[in-house]
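Hey,
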Amino acid sequence: MATEQKPECACGDTSAVTLGKKRIIFPCAGVANVGQISNEAALRLTEEGYGAATCIALLGSGEAGLKQRIAEADEVVIIDGCPVVCGAKIAAAEGVIPTQHIVITGLAIEKGPSRQFTEDDVETVVSAAWEGKGRI
């Protein structure tokens, strides 16, 4: 009987980052529009080479490989959708202190019950990260 191997998660893989800093980006990825914006912005930032989008749920699981990648990263960016700041709370519970914490509703984007958002909303968040607006 063959033993089943557990696949390794690539979340937080900063090996491809080429802009001089290794960044891990955690979007809240909530169900409301601002959660969807956080996820889309994190993916866009990854595509632009800013950092590596990573699942906030994996952080909450305490996965050892991700903890190691966080320790090796230069910066940790949390993109929360609203003032409930779920992402920041999960990070704090795991002992992770972000370098930058962006709250989307703090960028004059209203939280709404639908999952719809605009390209301008995403660009506002992406620009905020590049400009360091959430630096702590």
